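ok here's the first one, seq then struct tokens
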Amino acid sequence: MTCAAEPRSAPGFVAFVDEWNGQQGLVTPPIHRRMAEWLAGHAECGSTRLVLLAFRSSGKSTLVGLFCAWLLARTPDLRVLVLAAEEGLAKKMVRNVKRIVERHPATAGLKPARAQIWASDQFVVERQAELRDPSMLARGLAGNITGSRADVVICDDVEVPNTSDTPGKRADLRERLAEIDYVLVPGGLQLYIGTPHTYYSIYADAARPEAGETVPFLAGFERLTIPVRDTEGTFAWPERFGAARVAEVLERTGPQKFRAQMLLQPTADGACRLDPDRLVPYDEPIDFSEANGRPVLRIAGRQMISASCWWDPSYGTTKGDRSVVAIVFTDELNHAWLHEVAYLAAARRDGEDEAQGFCRQVAAFAIRNRAPSVAIETNGLGAFLPGLLRRELSRSGAGCAVTGVHSSIPKTRRILDAFDARLAAGMLHAHRDVLKTPFPAEMREWRAEATAGRDDGLDAVAGCLLAEPVRFAAPPRPERSDWRPGAGGHRAHTDFRI
């Protein structure tokens, strides 16, 4: 890439930082020199999408403030927009840049003789172009940026707990950041600086399929990641964050927060009791066949001996519960195979009510997964659904039983009893399509002590794992489809007469 020529005489950015630090009686530490060289190299060669991740208290915001002042020193007509989770944080950077512009030798002449706009949240430097937008503007994420235009957008700590600790807040954060595309001029520079605060961070370098991502949120951005220490144990800023200081931070903040904020590894908040990384993924479909006249069902080469299908119904109440149906197979080694989890949406056909529409979907689910039975949690509004589902399955000609189950065990205990031992033993397999649903996110964010949060998929799968398999004779059909060993009848030949 051909580097752009500097439109105004100014020192290189590293020299700019050194001169400012010298004026303050400081020496530029190697970590800041590394950041400065990276920013300058990309800026001078025309890169437009950058992410700077550095551990907490590493001085990254201060350095980016110097970077903004340097950009204005080179090109006074630039318009810089600073976005932060809170407007106060954005103002802090603008005030810092304004102070640098007033005092740095390389920015002499940028402060206008008659400053019309020279405030803590915005200012205008001496420039030639007549522009509606200020040279630098601070806005919080909740602020209105519609109608603004910017050549540079700095996203300074836009992800914090208040913008990322629930799925709804994370979705809102991404929606607000998408507005930048309408503010940034073509070819403008967008720079993110911060640290991850959640496993589903905007800074994650891998997509989170369970959150609906097919690519990372910041795919295509050039990255510089500086953890407090690397994988070989080398400290990024040993003079300030050596072994003793880092150990103190770890002890004070705990391992989860330390991994996220100091090692820059997107991590679930709190103790992740149900870790989806412990699921054993597989890709194979159901393999149904007959061997010696007997139906056999296999997954990944293993013969299955039973299955449990559980439907946790809901009609979208004020709690926001979702209607979920799941199926789990069990093999001869007692490993559980979570083959499908379906989050159902109301889909009524002509002449159907909402309950009938759900029953039709559950019947289709049971048929395609060759479920021998479906258990329905009848607590509350599920009481009348078994009859409706039986009628739907009968219309389809499926030999599938339906049972209503009333659960009196507290949900937290039920979920822990179902998952804890299997996850610890590596005996819970999950199809990769399951890993693309909200189910892994429910696992990662579930807390035993929490009174709110999504757990509908967890509840349905827990029902499968805890249910005793129902065994019954195969229905009278021309083609046998009950693949479970021992199912169906057997005629014995004898040598005596009765």
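and now the second one, same deal
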Amino acid sequence: MKLIQALKNLSEKLNAEFEDSKLFDHSGEKGEFREQIITELLRPFLPNAFGLGSGQIFDQSDKSSNQIDIVIFDAIYSNVLFKNRNNNLFPCESVYGEIEVKSNLTTDELNKSIDNIASLKKLNRADSTMLDISPVYKLKIGEGLKASNAKLNPYLGIIYAYDGLTKETFANKLDEKLKITHKTLTPDFIFNQKRQYMAIKVDKTGQVVGLRHDFERFGIINTNNDTLPIMFLTLNICLNMIRLKAPDYNIYWKRMMTEILENQ
């Protein structure tokens, strides 16, 4: 299949680009270069409706996430702040999820990445349902009709590493971190390109579970040379499952009007 072959070719290009990044002496420059590689490689394989940026995400109570490597946001309806800068501020309602990019997934970097994803998943936003046709339009149904109230806008959290912990050590360190991290705040997928494995949520029977379903544990799967292709396919599938709901601007309007009237 042409799509799969294109992704396999991209994986080879990524390996070469990462080797080139080692020519940089300054660790900060290495990190920025590697994040740029991922963004530039991701962009051609994502529809333009999905924006890619970097920065912090906030909710209507002014709580913010940690600094996020790659924020995936709604590029059509969202109101991203400071779009002309390298770091942006994103309303949580406009965010599909995030990707933590690590050149070397050490224990510290794994813990930091999980904490960053948790900081996003803690942000509060109104649930979207099957009645939310678009972020700004909600379908009205007649009296007596019912529709599922299942939440359709969970945050997606992915960790993508080029190298790092061996499969066995990773499994142990992940298990340790999950003991002190609430299940609802955990990453959804973790990939290691060079070590050729991925972590995915499974239920009690070992079956893979979706974004909105409870899970029992993480399963570790060997991905061989297909780590990047499976990551891209997983990302696209998940993004197409998420239905965003625009911020309730009435809340902001009422807050401002209250302040204006109090100062009359």
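notes on #2: Residues 11 and 228 are 6 Å apart (CA to CA). The chain has a mean pLDDT of 88.
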